[in-house]
Amino acid sequence: MFLVVLDSVGIGAAPDAEAYGDVGSATLPHCAAAAGGLHVPTMQAMGVGNIPGILPGGLSITGVPPAMAPIASWGALQERSQGKDTTTGHWEMAGLLIEEGFHVFPPEHPSFPEELIAAFTAQTGRDILGNKAASGTVIIEELGAEHMETGKWIVYTSADSVLQIAAHEAVIPLDELYAGCRVARELCDPLMVGRVIARPFVGADPENFRRTENRRDFSLVPPESTILDHLQTHGVKTVTVGKLDDVFAGRGIDRSEHVENNQAAQRIVLTIAEESESQFVFVNLIDFDMLYGHRRDALGYATALEHTDLFLADLLPKLGEDDCLMITADHGNDPTFAGTDHTREFVPLLVYRPGQPGVPLGIRNGFYDVAQTVTDLFGVPRMKRGESVIG
Question: What are the tens digits of pLDDT across the range 167-207?
């Protein structure tokens, strides 16, 4: 089974979007409209264009009409956990419920507790710059030159539960950056911070600074067993592709293919699809969120969706009658919406099983229906939350 997460591809504001300031967000429909229409014939055939019709106030996807007879089962997931970040979304689809939500730092300087920063600088031997909420690309433009002169860490946060550390690869080597992040991870654990993220960059001056693909996420360890742990316990091989080894703190994973872009992840998935071994393959396609959502690039987002549709067209013929492909997302990140942060949205759900007709799945009450469906497909005991979407 392949579980493919289109990172941040929401499909319309969730019922509780007002609590997050996200009323009016709709990532996929708004990107399609901004592009003058999407050309995604594989996802269209699977039924993605049918999903808005079941959502309250759902917006049609320009260029992607409903399919008369979808080849996949189709529906939407509504998140139950508190939050709208990567960790919360992936953990819930893996069977968890985050009821209290992770700790979010205040946006204004100083964002981080004085005692945390004092301990971090003492243990790493470097002072910090930043200490506020900011866009990652903007803050390296603002502070990158000073960082190069002083060797101080650039430390910042966002609307998510994160502490991010940026450093020029020629000033602070990657090994030292990752070690610094491990220090911060330990200091953030008592605060229930979802992630510490290493954000390395290169370039000679602010005009050509660019972040590299040597990003690493240092996540809080999941508080209970996830679908990955559960499958391992019952003898099912687990594989992650993308950044999911980081999201799950390396737990419950037999084989990790860590890559930081869609193209590399998709190549790996197509190779795995040629393997005959029974395995659960959990995939994150990060570019939608990292390159286009946060940078408010709706046209780039739309193009990435079209490229992914070509990948799906290559993947579907490789699947046998006992295989399953499930496609969903972890949150929204509407590039046409205000700000540069994630948006609280419904996410699409497509379930493709070769030779089986698609059926409507409705709006599912909790991302953890994904995990329960996985238990059903592999014939292992149920997890404690969720309902399988297959009969």
Answer: 999 999 999 999 999 999 999 999 999 999 999 999 998 88
Residues in the chain: 391
Start and end residues for every CATH 3.40.720.10 domain found in the chain: 2-98+221-378
- DSSP letter at 332 equals B
For the stretch 16-56, pLDDT in tens is 999 999 999 999 999 999 999 999 999 999 999 999 999 99
Q: Under CATH, domain 2-98+221-378 is a member of which superfamily?
A: Alkaline Phosphatase, subunit A (3.40.720.10)
What percentage of the chain's residues is helix, strand, coil (to nearest 5)? 35, 20, 45
Angle at 344 between CA 342 and CA 350, to 5 degrees: 100
Give the CA distances from residue 72 to residues 75, 234, 299, in Å, rounded to whole numbers and listed in that order. Answer: 10, 28, 27
Q: What percent of the chain has pLDDT over 90?
A: 95
CATH 3.30.70.1250 in the chain, residue ranges: 114-216
Q: Output the 3-class SS for 141-198.
A: HHHHHHHHHHCCEEEEECCCCEEEEEEECCCCCHHHHHHHHHHHHHHHHHHCCCEEEE
List the structure tokens of 80. 């139950």
Which CATH fold topology does 114-216 show?
Alpha-Beta Plaits (3.30.70)
Any idea what the Cα angle at residue 21 is, between residues 20 and 27, rounded to 5°? Answer: 90
Say if CB 199 and CB 355 are below 8 A apart. Answer: no
